Structure prediction request, 81 residues.
Amino acid sequence: MTISPAQCRAARGLLGWSQDELTVATGGGVAKRSLIRFEQGATSPQPRTIDAIRSALEAAGVEFIPENGGGPGVRLRGRET
Prediction:
């Protein structure tokens, strides 16, 4: 599943991350300029770039919700007790 620019922005918002923090979380695999252009919808990044963004956000606790009639979305994983 690919993620949309809106899902990326929303995921960062849920985590309270800046664009800089997300680029660091990708292990340097994504340039800030690439992230900015993706989030603006100005470009469609390479699949490996999307994978790096998605992996970093998922590792931080974000779940991406696919299109299910109400549109795609994001949420934070529940904490196990």
The radius of gyration is 12 Å. The chain is about 50% helix and 10% strand. Helices lie at 5-15, 19-25, 32-39, 47-59. The CA atoms of residues 25 and 72 lie 23 Å apart.
